[in-house]
Automatic annotation (TrEMBL), chains A, B:
InterPro entries: HTH_HxlR, WH-like_DNA-bd_sf, WH_DNA-bd_sf. PROSITE patterns: HTH_HXLR. This is HxlR family transcriptional regulator. Keywords: DNA-binding, Transcription, Transcription regulation. The keyword DNA-binding applies. One of its GO terms (molecular function) is DNA binding. It comes from Devosia epidermidihirudinis. It comes from the Bacteria. Residues 19-117 form the HTH hxlR-type domain. The keyword Mitochondrion does not apply. SUPFAM superfamilies: Winged helix' DNA-binding domain.
Length: 130, 130
DNA sequence: CAGCATCCGCGTAGATACTG
DNA sequence: CAGTATCTACGCGGATGCTG
């Protein structure tokens, strides 16, 4: 692809040019990216392994996510010229530093999921929640 | 709404029922939620303030995001019965603990955005990137 | 095995108009 | 001011079929 300009909202570009957090969020603010980073934090994995480990991810989305993370320098991709082909994915040093944050999110999630779910129950049980 | 069942993929529910991280990601793995939490980490804000602070967010998305975070027990909403109306949003204690992670993500972003952008440039400049 | 290409439906988000 | 309601479109992501 030559043209990667798919934005139609000018203001969008404005904020993108000025806020690092948003630019990073544009890279990793999706579920699959976070899960991939979390998985690779456990060590190098092959494509097929990841597909099996991350239940519910389609081949397309996994490929897309990995390409994106590779582009961002968070994941590195190594192809072995063998038959059958073998492709391994690893976190770069940059990716490892980010993985620390993902890990803390995982810990937070496991500590607080009960509270969150309980809150949802209460919220949905309100009289006006119809 | 009575029916909130919009899932069609069985496997989806399977993972949702077993993995706290994914359940939490389903709540906060979008850009606006992270930005809202980051903003409220600076203190209580009114709706209009937030709309102006978070450039590019539509009124609809902001409302939607805030409702979702309120449901999760991350944000609390206080309505003042005045004219004109005044609505304030604040992080709950739960939200504050999550805000710590968001804050560390912000720091990471500002520290590493240059590296990420440079990596993207290099990636896009590959011969085969056509 | 690891991936690309294509098709397609549905949901998500934007725009707009109206209200307490 | 802080929403709700409705309409629309377009892009995301799933399913399928094919390749090195």
């Amino acid at each position: 692809m030559v043209t990667i300009e798919t934005k139609q909202h000018p203001a969008w570009d404005v904020y993108k040019a000025t806020c690092p957090t948003r630019q990073v969020l544009d890279c990793i603010a999706d579920k699959w990216a976070v899960l991939v980073i979390g998985l690779l934090n456990g060590g190098t994995r092959r494509f097929g392994e990841m597909r099996k480990s991350i239940e519910g991810v389609s081949q397309k989305m996994l490929t897309q996510t990995l390409r994106s993370l590779e582009r961002d320098g968070i994941v590195s991709r190594r192809v072995y010229a063998s038959v059958p082909p073998k492709v391994e994915y690893t976190l770069t040093p940059l990716g490892q530093s980010l993985a620390g944050i993902v890990e803390s999110l995982r810990v937070w999630s496991e500590s607080n999921i009960e509270v969150v779910l309980a809150s949802q129950q209460t919220y949905d049980a309100r009289p006006e929640a119809e």
